[in-house]
Amino acid sequence: MKLYESKTAPNARRVRMFLAEKGVLDQIECVELDLQGGDNISVEFRQKNPLAKIPVLEFDDGTYLSESIAICRYFEALYPQSPLMGTTPIEQANIEMWQRRCEIYFMNIVGMGFQHTTGFFADRMKPIKEWGEVCVSGAAKFFKLLDAQLAHNQYIAGDSFSVADITALVSIDFARVIKLRMPEEMSHLKRWYEQMQQRPSVGV
Ligand SMILES: N[C@@H](CCC(=O)N[C@@H](CS)C(=O)NCC(=O)O)C(=O)O
């Protein structure tokens, strides 16, 4: 199996972290793409993913899977030990809820803030600076929700580490590119962030 990715791309990082948590990252061949250089918008790459995004998983039979969480779900089913997506129906649903909250209301907004304020992908989209700024301040509001959740929970979705923690952590780290940092006074969020730094998967 091959994973098309980029070391600096947050979506690719969450799949790498997930695979590291499962202990199988070294079994996958990682193929580094130059996103700003346009590797992912080539005709050849669009045959792997018509949406021209990474990460993309290539199977040995020449088929492909994209969307970070779909790739994670595949590996969760393949390696169900040390579950990262829950086991009971309520655990699974709760993790899904937090994963989606972190992705939709935080990660995607941070990404839009980055693309629209920096013009990083100006060759393939029209950056609208004002919209980027709206996204940056919208994303900042999410820290409060995370801090409140972590006041009563060890991890984002409850008592165990999950894919929701991966999405939140990767998004917080990526938010630095738009100069968005966790507010100092958010002690629960800070406690959780420091705890996350102990996991070997953060460095992959
Ligand atoms: N919903 C997709 C998002 C994928 C995505 O936006 N990937 C970014 C990198 S983090 C990308 O490929 N950007 C290149 C571009 O927009 O041209 C997922 O979860 O994998």
Kindly summarize this structure in a few lines:
This protein has 204 residues and is of the alpha+beta class. It has helices at 10-22, 43-46, 68-78, 89-118, 129-140, 142-150, 163-174, 187-196; strands spanning 2-5, 29-32, 56-58, 64-66.
Notes on the protein architecture:
With 204 residues, the chain is of the alpha+beta class. The chain folds into two domains: 2-78, Glutaredoxin (3-Layer(aba) Sandwich), CATH 3.40.30; 89-203, Up-down Bundle (Glutathione S-transferase Yfyf (Class Pi), Chain A, domain 2). The chain is built from eight helices and four strands; from the N terminus they run βαβαββαααααα. It has helices spanning 10-22, 43-46, 68-78, 89-118, 129-140, 142-150, 163-174, 187-196, and strands at 2-5, 29-32, 56-58, 64-66. Helix 4 (89-118) packs antiparallel against helix 5 (129-140). Bound molecules: glutathione. Glutathione is lined by residues 9-11, 35, 40-41, 52-55, 67-68, 121, 124.
